[in-house]
Amino acid sequence: MAGKLKKVALKPVNVALGVAAGALAGLLFKEAWKLVSGDDDAPDAGDPERGWGEILAAAALQGAIFAVVKAAVHRGGAIGTEKLTGTWPD
Question: Which parts pass through the membrane (predicted)?
């Protein structure tokens, strides 16, 4: 029973961390795109003025940044949970 209670208690924290991670990843992507391209706005896939290469490069960069931030937040949350509860989360 205590294990289920821990999971329920940590769920809102995990949701909040996920939202914060998404916002952080978005900010990091915008800044990285500015550095890489010199353009303030990343291309939209539906923009007829942008080429395939630019759109795919932006998507690859965005995906890489989001994956790294997600992994860092997930790992950090697991370590924090272990320190707080004494057990590694499932």
Answer: 12-29, 55-73
